[in-house]
Amino acid sequence: MIESRVLPDEEQPPAVAHVQVYGVRHHGPGSARAVRRALEEFEPDAVLVEGPPEADPLLELAGDPAMVPPVALLAYSPGLDAAGTGRRAAFWPFAGFSPEWQAIRYAVGAGVPVRFCDLPAANQFVAASGEQDDGDDVRLDPLGALAEAAGYDDAERWWDDVVEHRSGEDSPFAAIAEAMAELRAALPVPAAGGYRRREEQREAYMRRTLRRALKDGHERIAVVCGAWHVPALLEQVPAAADDQTLRGLPKARVAMTWVPWTHGRLAGRSGYGAGVRSPGWYHHLFTAPDRPVERWLTDAARLLRGEDLHVSSAHVIEAVRLADALATLRGRPLAGLEEVTEATRAVLCEGSDLPLELIHRRMVVGERLGVVPARTPMVPLQRDLHAEQRRLRLKAVPDPKDQDLDLRKPTDLDRSRLLHRLRLIEVEWGVPKEEGRSRGTFREAWTLAWRPEFDVELIEASAWGTTVRDASAARAQAMAADAGPLPELTALAERCLLADLPEALPEVTRALADRAATDTDVAHLMEALPALVRALRYGDVRGTATGPLREVVDALAVRVRVGLPPATTALDDDAAESLLDRIDAVHAALALLADQDHLTAWQRTLASLLDHPGLHGLLEGRLTRLLLDAGLLPDVTARMARAVSTGAAPARAAAWVEGFLAGGALILTHDDELLRLLDAWIAELPPDSFTAVLPLLRRTFGGYTAAERRAIADRARFTTSPPGETLDPARAAPATATTLRILGWETP
Amino acid sequence: MTTDAVLRPHAEQQYADELARLAEHDERPRPPGWKLSPWAVTTYLLGGELPGGAVVTPKYIGPRRLIEVAVATLATDRALLLLGVPGTAKTWVSEHLAAAVSGDSTLLVQGTAGTPEEALRYGWNYARLLAEGPSEAALVESPLMRAMRRGAVARVEELTRMPGDVQDALITILSEKTLPVPELTTEVQARKGFTVIATANDRDRGVNELSSALRRRFNTVVLPLPATVDDEVDIVARRVGQLGAALELPEAPAGLAEIRRVVTVFRELRSGLSSDGRTRLKSPSGTLGTAEAISVITSGLALAAHFGDGVLRAADVAGGIVGAVVQDPVADRVVWQEYLETVVRDRPEWRDFYRACREVS
Predict the structure, then answer these.
(1) Is the pLDDT of residue B152 over 90?
(2) What residues of chain A lie within 8 A of the CB of B279, using their CB?
(3) Residue A552: inside a domain
(4) Same structural domain for residues B217 and B263?
(5) What pLDDT, on the 0 to 100 scale, is given for residue B149?
(6) What's the rounded Cα separation, in Å, for the pair A398 and A431?
(7) pLDDT by residue (tens digit) across A270-317?
(8) How many folded domains does chain B comprise?
(9) Pair (B17, B85) in one structural domain
(10) B239 and B199 within one domain
(11) Same structural domain for residues A58 and A167?
(12) B170 with B317, same domain?
């Protein structure tokens, strides 16, 4: 127990005050429990907690029964500059097992004044020069450093082993303070950069707050701060020196509020995460009244049972035994998360990692979303949206209203982007009137309707970022990380382009590339390609950078080329037809891409396919046609002759013709040779075969416009009748009439 | 028979010195029936230094926690199931665990499609049975029965290769720890220290899935493939050296670079990710374990020695690699070609390898 007699400022030498400084591990359940116990014993008349003093007025909200941790204090610059530059945000997350939270709750509950004592966020927002290097991890987690020195890999373990399980000692804080003093003395002084200066400022501010509290007449003051700062707070530093340190610090405008937080965000190491790897486990340790291992494993078993995995009580018994045996083997007084996880894997999950992941997600991290009371001030995402609404003159009204946007106008383009971004963070304020094909045009039609619950969604989405743009970009990246099949990702890529989020695009395209690489079905790849090429083109229209997308398209094209040949063997009629559609789509897409290398390679692939034995007639015909159109096939007539010659089965020949002619009738009206071959083939078909082939031909020619059919018939009439033959028009009349009707040359 | 004369001595024979020294320094409590304490067993498996400077060689190179879980399992008298793809040292670990815990790794039942139930329980000496009727003397004990009588560790290799009904004979033994002999109206009750280490392959086709009743009686430890390229190169190079000597192949220096390349190819295809982590790949259907890498290199060495210039080159391993990767002629060929074109081709220092592979595919 640190009890120091602090002599307050010069002129007031009065009553001797008691100050206790509790050095804690942020988000450590052991610390939390110890702090709570120590406070109840000490009964302070003022509590100081490490945190931004701007949040002092918000502290009473922590006592609101509607406030459920995990929550976070959010400081942000309310920046009115529309450009959005220089905006910053910082979060101070609190979980139920955070010692700071316990201290606040205690103070609010006991009616004791509670204050934050860290350097104001207003000062912290202005970066001290060179602050980027965040110091090393020792300062961020000094208890972790001590634990490591003692041979532990988890600070909570060390804390549990060393502090919680030691009997006869009622408070660990004296020992912690001593250890920290040692650690601070032993560590080299950090280079005189921004980090060190900031550190000095923070500690000076903490001392100053403490002095003020004493001056205010408080006599029993409890200070809860990171263990690292304890020696600094106990140090006797003249007030003038601290004032010197803090003089003239630059300030930024800051607004603060509470926001709901999640365990997942606590677990993140980057960004605003607190680097707590196992918040769910800590929560369990903090809340479980006794036998944490048994309770945890029982919960895990129930979770697995809920997923229809067979886990019995016998499993749990064996898992507990194994965890205990492992703890003994490792020389630890009680099984910790590591032992429990090993036991879960070996017994409950029978060696499989999949259910273990489930346990990690649902229990070790734990899906928990905090709640803040309704009277909490608003989050910056909402403010940002309001600013955008004002700027773009879009009113949030509950009645549905149609809005037509002309994307060539900058305002309309921005409106469209805002709506697309909001859709990405699931605020469906605007709904496109018709999804799909109209993208190529410069028009977009939306239906706008504001619903009150969007506010809730915005607050929830504020975990993703403080502006609509940042949040939607972060959201898109997260969606890319756990998107399902390929089409979902291509759709996401398109949405990113529509919302103009180039920062999210690399993530999406990388996921896309990964998914494309592992997708074994070439059909999926072929389906994805055209959409991507469209997106590329569309990006051009909107002026979005599409570089990474281009790489994906390149890779996809290669994979399609490699995968296509095996996919063309042994197809039945239906499969050939669907593949034909895909080949057409890819062909068109590559033509749209207008990349000569891709086009040549693709044509080479098609050419090599053509000589594949056993290729479906439909495909062969179609490929012949595609290559002919590309001017790469000199011997088309010979090929057609081969395909429709008597050696070929009539059904296959018909399929060939269907494939060949599917791309339009013009070729027949211009190439007499081909027309003659076709005509001769039909003329020479034996009656049975003719009946069999007729529907196929009917289908092929039925696809042409009436004008085309007439043109072909005209040519057929003049070019193909063998000269010198005598005709009997009367006998031929009925057949002629029927034929004419089939050809559509003459309407009845 | 002296250990020098046998082709392959048992673990407890080969490492008798280390076991003796470990026992000498072992002051921790030993579970009943154990020759060493759990801590000493862990040290035996993972290697370490003893007070007095004696060095214990590592038997298993891999995560420490796996061995700790395995030893802790045995210490709680649960049965241990070692799972893993071929070539992850399952048998090796089980042999050394048995040698360290019981000082005897020979109580072994090998699982095959034809393993009868007698191999797990007991059989009869039929000549005696006919002559004298059922008696203790006519009983032929299985290794498991002997292990129960002695309170030792029994090993069951390739558990999933046994027919399901034979596997289930283990259930009584593992849950009741007794083996009834109704013919003699007696039973054998296991002494303290008895447990079973089983190994099974979780990738092979045509295995007999364990019944859930049996599965429940095991703690499962999955042995992974080597974690880093360096570990794997190390294992492959060491093993190739031993094999080359045993097969008396002509000397051909197995270039470490070539070994690394083979290991890299296998690792990349296995994990479905290129080593720089930037390109996703498809994985082929076959197992590409350390054991396959070793066989590719040894056959490459033979090629180089007999038909090449005596130095292991890309061309010598290319054939072997393609053969190992392309097990399914259609799907795997696509996988291999994609890999060649998207990964191998872009590595300038792999040009010789790319050419060699193009030639054989």
Answers:
(1) yes
(2) 513, 517
(3) no
(4) no
(5) 93
(6) 13
(7) 444 556 778 888 888 888 777 888 999 999 999 999 888 888 888 899
(8) 2
(9) yes
(10) no
(11) yes
(12) no
Q: Assess whether B201 and B338 both reside in one domain.
A: no
DSSP 8-state class, residue A75: E
Residues A256, A376: Cα–Cα separation, whole Å: 10
> B321 and B239, same structural domain?
yes
What are the Cα distances from residue B90, in Å, to B80, B158, B202, B221? 11, 10, 11, 10
CA distance A209 to A239: 11
| Closest by Cβ to A342, choosing from B69, B282, B337 | B69
**Contact, A641 vs A661, CB < 8 A?**
no
- Which phi and psi (to 5°) does residue B201 adopt? -100, 125
Contacts of A516 in chain B (CB under 8 A): 280
Instruction: Determine, for residues B282 and A517 on separate chains, whether the beta-carbon distance falls below 8 Å.
Output: yes
Q: Tell whether A313 is within 8 A of chain B (Cβ).
A: no
Q: B197 and B112 in one domain?
A: yes
- How much is the average pLDDT of A485-493? 80
Interface of B with A (CB under 8 A): 38-39, 42, 65, 68-69, 71-73, 75-76, 78, 81, 83, 212, 215-216, 218-222, 272, 279-282, 330-331, 333-334, 337-338, 341-342
Q: Percentage of residues in chain A with pLDDT exceeding 70?
A: 83
CB atoms within 10 A of CB A386: 13
Does the pLDDT at position A81 exceed 80?
Answer: no
Query: Chain A contacts of B38, Cβ < 8 Å?
Result: 325, 329
pLDDT greater at residue B25 or residue A267: B25
Place A24 in a pLDDT band, splitting at 50, 70 and 90: confident
Check whether residue A385 and residue A359 sit in a common domain: no
In this structure, the answer to whether residues A209 and A292 fall within a common structural domain is no
State how far residue A529 is from chain B, nearest Cα, in angstroms: 17
Whether the pLDDT of residue A422 is over 70: the answer is yes
Inform me whether the C-beta atom of residue A164 falls under 8 Å from chain B C-beta atoms. no
Å between A329 CA and nearest CA of chain B: 7
Q: How many domains does chain A have?
A: 4
What pLDDT is recorded for position A412?
Answer: 87
Does A346 touch chain B if contact means CB atoms closer than 8 Å?
yes
Q: Which of B26, B41, B68, B73 to mutate to test the interface with A (most CBs of A within 10 A)?
A: B73
Are residues B238 and B186 part of one domain?
A: no
B330/A566 CB distance under 8 A: yes
- Do A91 and A223 lie in one domain? The reply is yes
* Alpha carbons A110 and A84: distance in angstroms, whole number: 42
Please, what is the end-to-end C-alpha distance for chain A in angstroms?
A: 108
Beta-carbon separation of B280 and A566 below 8 A: no
**Token pair for B15:** 């490492």
**pLDDT per position as a tens digit, A42-74:** 889 899 998 888 888 888 888 888 888 888 887
Instruction: State both tokens at B98.
Output: 């048995």
Does A167 lie in the same domain as A112? yes
Residue A572 belongs to some domain of the structure: no
| Best of A311, A560, A562 to mutate (most B CBs within 10 Å, chain B) | A562
Q: What is the DSSP string of A384-424?
A: HHHHHHHHHT----SS-EEEEEETTSHHHHHHHHHHHHHHH
The answer as to whether A219 is a domain residue is yes
Domain carrying residue A307:
279-366
Q: Does residue A296 share a domain with residue A176?
A: no
- Full domain range(s) for residue B105: 11-222
Nearest to A325 among B76, B215, B334 (CB): B76
Residue A7 reports pLDDT greater than 60:
no
Q: Are residues A151 and A215 in the same domain?
A: yes
C-alpha A700/C-alpha A715 separation (Å) is 18
Give the closest-approach CA distance of A348 to chain B in angstroms. 9
Is B6 inside a domain boundary?
A: no
**Which CATH number belongs to the domain containing residue B26 in this structure?**
3.40.50.300
Residues 6+ apart with CB under 8 A from A313: A301
pLDDT tens by residue, A374-421: 677 777 788 788 788 888 888 776 667 888 888 788 888 888 889 888
Give me the residue from A312, A329, A352 closest to B72, CB to CB.
Answer: A329
pLDDT, averaged across chain A: 78
Last residue of a domain, one of A261, A292, A311: A261
pTM: 0.64
